[in-house]
UniProtKB/TrEMBL annotation:
Residues 4-149 form the DUF2062 domain. It comes from the Bacteria. InterPro entries: DUF2062. It comes from Aquiflexum gelatinilyticum. This is DUF2062 domain-containing protein. The keyword NAD does not apply. The chain crosses the membrane at residues 23-51, 58-79, 117-143. Keywords: Membrane, Transmembrane, Transmembrane helix.
Amino acid sequence: MRLRNLGQKFTNLLKQGLSPKELALSISVAVLIGVFPIYGTTTFILAFLALKMRLNMPIMLAISYILTPVQILLIIPFARVGEFLFGFETLGMDIESLQNAYAEGFFAVISKYSGRLILAVGSWLIIAVPVAVFLYIFLFQVFRAIKSSRKGSENKISSEIK
C-alpha cells in the first residue's frame, strides 16, 4: 500500500511540469552529492546547486537524506580507494574512530583526517561522477518513456470521450 502511494506521488511529479530532463538531473545530482564523503556538507551543497541550476530541491534533499547511511558507509571505502589510487600508505581509520572524531565536532574530523578526506574526495570524483552521468542517462530515458506513454494513454482516453 505504501509503495503504491509513493508511486502515485512520484508520477504526480511528472504531471507538475517537471520535464524528464529536470527530474533525471535532479535525482542524479542528488545521488552524486548524497554520497559525498564529507559528512555534514551535502545539504548545503545540494541547496546551492538546486538554486543555481534551478532543480527540484525537495526531491534532491529527500534523496540525500535517504542516502545518508550509504554516505556514512562509503567514507572509509572512498578513503581506501584514494589511498590506493594516489599511492598513500593506509591510515588506521575505522567507524569508531570516525564516530569519536565527529562527536568532538566537525573541525576535529577535519584536523585529524583532512588528508584522508581529500583522498576520499578524489576517489569520489573518479568513481561517483561517471556513475552519476550514467544514472542521468538511464533516468532520462526512463522518464521520457513514462511521459510519452502517459501522453499516449491520455490521447487515447480523450479520443474515446469524443
